[in-house]
Task: inverse folding
């Protein structure tokens, strides 16, 4: 005799079959979940730390032996009065410094040539100005505050004339501070370029009050 069809019985049988199927999938689901966790863990980016360390005296002597250099990169200036980004080129030779800021089109925003007791500035209109203090000349004409006289060594990571400084785990300067003309300047060294020898700063943040200057050096050329 053929068994009569019962909707309730069919539903019950279906639920039981479904539960058996789900139980059969649990080991596979656990294996998939474990594999996914392993995959995600493998994709996690581990911060890179420097493997190159030296003692501070050796590093300081190597930096002091650099007689000329050129640093190229970007400068970002932020203050309540103005903010801008510019291409940066800083050249230093014995007794002279040359700062050039250009826009993304390569047009000159500011060109400064300085020697002890003498500075010449050319603005974005091509006008030429002279003075004895390069930092004061830049400030008076552009309202941009920069510790020009100190940056020659600070760019290299030398804390020359700093009131205080701290070293990082690789025995390079991580932070320095100095009061200049009654204003406290602070400089954080956030990264170093280890493709050059000695390693030189590649990311710096200079701050004074509510002014911040971000420097990213993409290329170094040095001469001893």
Result:
């Amino acid at each position: 005799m053929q068994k009569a069809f019962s909707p309730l019985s069919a539903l019950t049988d279906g639920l039981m079959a479904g539960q058996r199927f789900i139980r059969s999938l649990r080991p596979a689901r656990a294996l998939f979940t474990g594999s996914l966790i392993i995959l995600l863990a493998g994709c996690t980016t581990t911060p890179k730390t420097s493997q190159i360390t030296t003692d501070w005296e050796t590093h300081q002597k190597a930096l002091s032996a650099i007689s000329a250099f050129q640093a190229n990169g970007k400068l970002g200036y932020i203050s309540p009065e103005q903010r801008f980004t510019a291409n940066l080129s800083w050249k230093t030779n014995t007794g002279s410094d040359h700062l050039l800021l250009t826009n993304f089109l390569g047009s000159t925003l500011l060109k400064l040539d300085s020697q002890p007791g003498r500075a010449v500035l050319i603005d974005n209109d091509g006008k030429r100005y002279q003075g004895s203090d390069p930092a004061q000349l830049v400030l008076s004409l552009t309202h941009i505050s920069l510790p020009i006289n100190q940056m020659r060594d600070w760019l290299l990571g030398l804390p020359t004339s700093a009131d205080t400084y701290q070293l990082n785990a690789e025995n390079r300067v991580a932070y320095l501070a100095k009061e200049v003309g009654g204003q406290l300047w602070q400089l954080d060294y956030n990264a170093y370029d280890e493709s050059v020898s000695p390693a030189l700063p590649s990311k710096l943040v200079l701050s004074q009050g509510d002014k911040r200057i971000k420097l990213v050096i993409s290329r170094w050329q040095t001469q001893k």
